[in-house]
Amino acid sequence: MAQKGNEVVERPSPGQPADEETPGELEALEENDQLGALRPRLAPIPSDSPGAAMSPFNKYRGSIAWTEGFEQNLHILAKDQYPERAMGVFTSGGDAQGMNPAVRAIVRMGIYLGCKVYFIHEGYQGLVDGGNSIRQATWASVSGILDDGGTIIGSARCKEFRERPGRLRAAKNLIDHGINNIVCIGGDGSLTGANLFRKEWDSLLKELVETKEITQENADKYKNLNIVGLVGSIDNDFCGTDMTIGADSALHRVMEAIDCITTTASSHQRCFVMEVMGRHCGYLALVAALGSDADWVFLPESPPGPGWEEQLCAKLKSTREMGQRLNIIVLAEGAIDSEGKPITSEAVRELITNRLKFDTRVTILGHVQRGGCPSAFDRVLGTRMGTEAVLALMEATPTSQPVVIALSGNQTVRVPLMLCVEKTLAVAQAMKEKRFKEAQELRGRSFKGNLETYIRLSKLRPKLFSNKQQSFNLAVVNVGAPACGVNAAVRSIIRYGLCEGHNMFAIFDGFEGLVNNQVKSLNWMSVNGWSSVGGSLLGCQKAGASKTGLAKVAAKIREHNFHALLIIGGYEAYTSVLQMYEARNKHPEFQIPLICIPATISNNVPGTEFSIGADTALNEIVKICDKIKQSAQGSKRRVFVIETMGGYCGYLATLAALASGADQAYIYEEPFTIKDLIDDVDHLRKKMEGHLKRGLLLRNEMANEHYTTDFITKLLQEEGKGVFSARSNVLGHMQQGGLPTPFDRAFATKLGCKAVTYAVSLIEKVATNDGNVVCNTPESAVVLGLLKRQSEFTPVESLKAKTDLEHRMPLEQWWLKLRPLLRILAKHESVYIGDFIESGVDEVDE
Questions:
Q1: Which residues are catalytic?
Q2: Its function (predicted)?
Q3: What is the pLDDT of residue 67?
């Protein structure tokens, strides 16, 4: 059984654990809940807290009911399964990176299922205007838009739609095109408008029949309007989903700017005030501050109390006295003080300049945060959500309630649209009434956990948060290959442990460094600024515990009197924990908490769906693929074969293919034959007859012993003579480089804090007065990972049976369910139908 630790954080990305559930029921909207029992996850306000009895927000202090999406069953979908149906898609409100991948998925999945799909240009304005604003989309309409920011179908505000006459015109335009299924991509305002439109649909059709603008036959044919929403917003301010489309990309823009600013700030010993967007939501500011080691952050949900000016100046002054050459302050555009008065970036600059005489500058990022290419995460998220939106529309019934496609942990789910909107509005109301603690809780445990973690880790020196009488020795080591985000994990482990009053040690150069006594006690400032650094500042070696020598490792653990060992790394870290666990009887020194924190670009560690470093590597691959596609497009009729790393695990190849719009991804987990390769050649031949004359194939480095990257390239070159040429590119170790992405920084920080909490909880249960620690249970040798909606500590003893030891990866991998989607969106009909028949769908259809 996997054991769950105390909830510390929640992931802001593909693989983000949702809030843990607590007993109880929501009072509101139960009669409208079509998706199952509503399951709250936030505790009610303590009865003795001020204003508890009169709080109007208790009914929103819970999780949103959700139904799991159809994603894991994509393999049973049939081509043209829903013929003679029509749907429209529009984007509304502020644009967000990732909208285009969502539009692409909606169009292509809809066409694949036999539907007519229409673009509704310029949001609600196009719905009201009709005519040329509503145009049928084709497969080629959405070619080459995955890496485009913004929205190709436009977005605009529309005053007419707010009035009934405007909605009446919109209804007529939809009926004229035979559309009664709509996907709305936007924020809470856009989704509220869509819900109102649906509620009025029946009366709108009756009025149109009475005025003879539509026939009764058409009114009867399209009597039901089905609405599905996708939340596109860089603010990540919508309740009901862990991440909104565009938020991760906006974080990339923010973090890139801060990383650039730090170099010039350090050169001139300057202080920078960075103002980020987010309206009344501090998500972007908080996660950016957490991932950049910012000295201070101003949030709308957590306003500073009286005297904050003195506290800020005192802290900045102390940092300079300790030798720090720069200061970074992150300010959300909606920042206020405890009295509700706005705090502006210019006011903060004047405060620091006047009181401290620091050279202080302001950088307002503005709409830069909305621009640029979507991140790999937003491309995959938009694709998954767009696909699920189409399936939700196809499965809708006359009694179905409007739903929003959301991300819960690493699952696409369907949640009631209006309950999400009402809870989102409740946050704004709580802040308006200065109920800031409630606003933080309504944002979710992820937000609150991020805030608590930032407060602990951003201080100048450790502030003890516990009254523990005993201090223990905790050690951290990095084993395996480099992965971006490792340094952020080390920083959080060291600082969180110091906050708990323990002695923190770092082991340099892996287990070999331990044997060679490369052990150092780290203090608070030893890890200052580590979060934004790539690679491994501790140094890492691939030699695991067994290869180094279990007896030698045990002797050093005894010599240094370590009470817990936190091992950051990939498959070698996992096997090292397993080896030490199995050797506990022979070497009692291993009877301490042994925790593996997965960190590898291969994402092949059992017991977790995501590993630190995989997101950074995926983004590096996708960026390179974008550039290669440009080269192929310029050359005309050229196919590139890209080889990725990952060992036998095809995670990087598959997700990069999905995020870059590749035609195929060859991986070890899905065997392929020469016939499959020939089928792909035929597919590329047909593709070259269209307007997009380029091809992209990805291959995992260990996909097949004989069908190598060179072999596939030569096969394409030969079979494509006269039609296309072929080139190959082996990406190599550039996939391990770069600066960690916002996801990897935040993910690593949170896992580090959670690991320390868990290790200390185990130690305290068994520690004697003289400091001896003996942990000999399966729960004391674990992998800390993300599994579906939760962060879990899974004993390596149980994981061994779920591991392909020969090929160094888990026997079951969540991302394999996305493989059919990759083939569908690349128009690989022959390959997909083959899998469809092989999986026994004929019997299902009967």
A1: 235
A2: Catalyzes the phosphorylation of D-fructose 6-phosphate to fructose 1,6-bisphosphate by ATP, the first committing step of glycolysis.
A3: 67
